[in-house]
Amino acid sequence: MSTILEKIAAIEAEMARTQKNKATALHLGILKARLAKLRRELITPKGGGGATGEGFDVAKTGDARIGFVGFPSVGKSTLLSNLAGVYSEVAAYEFTTLTTVPGCIKYKGAKIQLLDLPGIIEGAKDGKGRGRQVIAVARTCSLVFIVLDVLKPLQHKKLLEHELEGFGLRLNKQPPNIHFRKKDKGGINLNTTCPQSELDIETVKTILSEYKIHNADITLRYDATSDDLIDVIEGNRVYVPCIYLLNKIDQISIEELDIIYKIPHCVPISAHHKWNFDDLLEKMWEYLKLIRIYTKPKGQLPDYNAPVVLHADKTSIEDFCNKLHRSIVKEFKYALVWGSSVKHQPQKVGIEHILADEDVVQIVKKV
């Protein structure tokens, strides 16, 4: 393992030494590709699967999963205890939490699983202090809460982002709009729909040859960087929304709080005093992009207590049926929908109809 870490350190040192200009773009592209390959080996080592981490993987329950990531002693356990009412050991020393502690909250009818992960330290992506197991759990979450201490500057934020990005997590980003397809023959075919400032055919060929790919179609639909292209080739990147929680705001002044509120994706809170939790939950709901659909049995009132929760990307009647039970789709005839997604109340719709938040649905089966 140390040899991989040494190689990574050597490449990072060379990248730091190299000036950034058009002449060195090709060389930097090769270095970035090599770095990405080594990082992937760190994430999934060659050979048999390693021993399972004790108590790190927690069974997924509920409609969404949120992981708390942060340095030791920033208040992750206090936050979990006060949000979910689950006792996670809290003490005045670092590394109090040693394994994942799960909790669950109900918000707007959706069950949301919260995971209090152990604190990570600098160098976590290279395996220091159980960091890799912690980040591996963070990869499976639908939303990441990065918990920061308000008194320590945003240096922590940069370090944490660097650790997570090094492990294939992309925070608050969209997947690159790059079409990439391998083929058997015909060489590298590069199409661009807009002018490129960094990638040209030579750079693309060099990066691809580093992955031993010599025949592929690539379409760049925006001004892409070599990092974006490497992300697409690797294909194991996880794009996760993220909220930065600035904890311990009871120790700063009102003027400082006003400045902090202007930082994007940030929510200032005090886990100990339970300040600003409503704002946090509202923002959490917005970033999770969940929608609630109520069911209505024939001849009865809709059940507003137990909504079916769908993700905003999958909101068709078919997804709704599959969430209830797999067999419903086979017997599906049509559905009656009340709500903002239809013109008439109720309206008869087919299986492709896209639902909106808080619609009421009644499914009619074939006889």
From TrEMBL:
Q: Which Pfam families match?
A: MMR_HSR1, MMR_HSR1_Xtn, TGS
Does the keyword Nucleotide-binding belong to this entry? yes
What SUPFAM superfamilies has UniProt attached to this entry? P-loop containing nucleoside triphosphate hydrolases, TGS-like
Record keywords, A-Z = GTP-binding, Nucleotide-binding
The UniProt record lists the keyword Nucleotide-binding: yes
Q: Which domain of life is it from?
A: Eukaryota
Q: Molecular function (GO) terms listed?
A: GTP binding; GTPase activity
Q: Outline the extent of the TGS domain.
A: 289-365
Pinpoint the OBG-type G domain residues.
64-289
User: By its UniProt entry, which NCBIfam families does this protein fall under?
Assistant: small_GTP (TIGR00231)
- The protein's name is Developmentally regulated GTP binding protein 1
